[in-house]
Design brief:
binds beta-D-glucopyranose; mainly beta; 39% strand; Gal_mutarotase_sf_dom; Beta-galactosidase, Chain A, domain 5; signal
């Protein structure tokens, strides 16, 4: 039990509120680690469970510091797992996995032609999304390695801190990078993801969580009836390989206008300026980067489940699951085209080659910090 929870219980008792504590035991707890199998090279993978008294349960594994399950009650109290994933490490290692739930990096999203120049030196990265580099590379990107983990107590609730030290040159990136990702669950249903990184050489860093949400439950039909709001007046238009042109364009008058709650399917077929097969766009979030503010709100009208996303990052990639193709996931469920959305808080794609975008370069002595809070409610 967190200190915050403990003090709340004491306060309730002081106020004569023992009954309140007994009937609303909403304090988050952490259990684990438990074994979750092994990678193909024999490395053990472990899993932790965060749960609170409101019925929210999050499961996290050490491969890729990945959110594997997220159970949330609907407006009637029926619980469903609202994120895509697999039942085994082998599933996560298979072709069927499209970064489900993982921590993505060292640089999430695309780098044009896998090239950048830093301090006069040119770096070449893997081309794993022709003709570009995507989500940190092929063999040792942050989603594929096994992280160290320990339980932690924070003022935001109890949780799990994952740590990984990426050696200098791993996946072609300069510098030894020490990364931590801390997941905590509060009694207000905030699943908070807090990232830090430090380096011994200047290097680009752009971390995100790549969960695929379907608020009707994973394996349900498309998310085209979900309603979405994105707190952005602008987005970054791209070329036909999904690399930003450098321009910041207004969403007004385009299918990218999500400034008010809108059905995801309403204008998806009108998207003409993109090579993606649906939404796969970076939005420029309103408000000041570095401050925690609203990024997006997603609602499934049938179940009443609502996901609110807040972040300190300048952008959010909204991806409407356009490359899901009916692969089999947890419990034998199939994941058809557009049956989940990713709402990835991050810096803009290809920032390392765009001097006018907020910088992704981390220097020795500096600390990378990024907070993303997923709040889960139903009404
Ligand atoms: C990208 C998509 C990509 C997907 C891979 C998203 O972050 O924006 O273009 O296909 O990740 O799972």
């Amino acid at each position: 039990m967190s200190r915050a929870c403990a003090s709340r219980l004491m306060l309730s008792a002081f106020l004569g509120g023992w009954m309140v504590c007994l009937v609303s035991p909403a304090c988050a707890e952490v259990s684990g680690p438990e074994p979750f199998g092994k990678t193909s090279d024999g490395t053990p993978v472990e899993r932790y469970t965060l749960s609170n008294g409101n019925g929210v349960v999050a499961k996290l594994m050490t491969r890729g510091a990945t959110l594997t399950e997220l159970h949330v009650p609907d407006k009637e109290g029926n619980v469903a797992d609202v994120v895509l994933g697999f039942d085994s490490v082998a599933g996560y290692e298979s072709e069927a996995n499209q970064y489900f739930g993982c921590t993505t990096g060292r640089v999430a999203n695309r780098i044009a032609e896998g090239k950048f120049t830093l301090d006069g030196e040119e770096y070449t990265l893997a081309i794993n999304n022709e003709p570009n580099h995507l989500h940190g590379g092929t063999e040792r990107s942050l989603d594929k390695v096994v992280w160290d983990a320990k339980t932690v107590k924070t003022k935001f609730g109890d949780g799990v801190r994952f740590t990984y030290v990426s050696p200098d040159g791993e996946e072609g990136y300069p510098g030894k990078l020490r990364v931590t990702v801390t997941y905590t669950l509060s009694d207000d249903n905030d699943l908070r993801i807090s990232y830090t990184a430090s380096t011994d050489k200047a290097t680009p860093v752009n971390l995100t969580n790549h969960s695929y949400f379907n608020l009707a439950g994973h394996g349900s039909d498309t998310v085209l009836d979900h309603r979405l709001k994105i707190n952005a007046d602008k987005y970054t238009p791209t070329d036909d390989t999904l690399i930003p042109t450098g321009e910041l364009a207004a969403v007004e008058g385009t299918p990218l206008d999500f400034r008010k709650m809108k059905r995801i399917g309403k204008q998806i077929e009108q998207l003409v300026d993109t090579a993606a097969l649906g939404y796969d766009h970076n939005f420029v979030l309103n408000g000041e980067a570095g401050k925690l503010r609203l990024a997006a709100r997603l609602k499934d009208p049938k179940s009443g489940r609502i996901l609110t996303v807040r972040t300190t990052e300048p952008g959010i990639q909204f991806y409407s699951g356009n490359f899901l193709h009916g692969q089999t996931g947890k419990g034998g469920k199939e994941y058809p085209l557009r049956s989940a959305v990713c709402l990835e808080t991050q810096h803009f794609p290809n920032s390392v080659n765009e001097p006018d975008f907020p910088s992704v370069i981390l220097k020795p002595g500096e600390k990378y910090r990024h907070v993303c809070v997923y709040t889960l409610k139903a009404e």
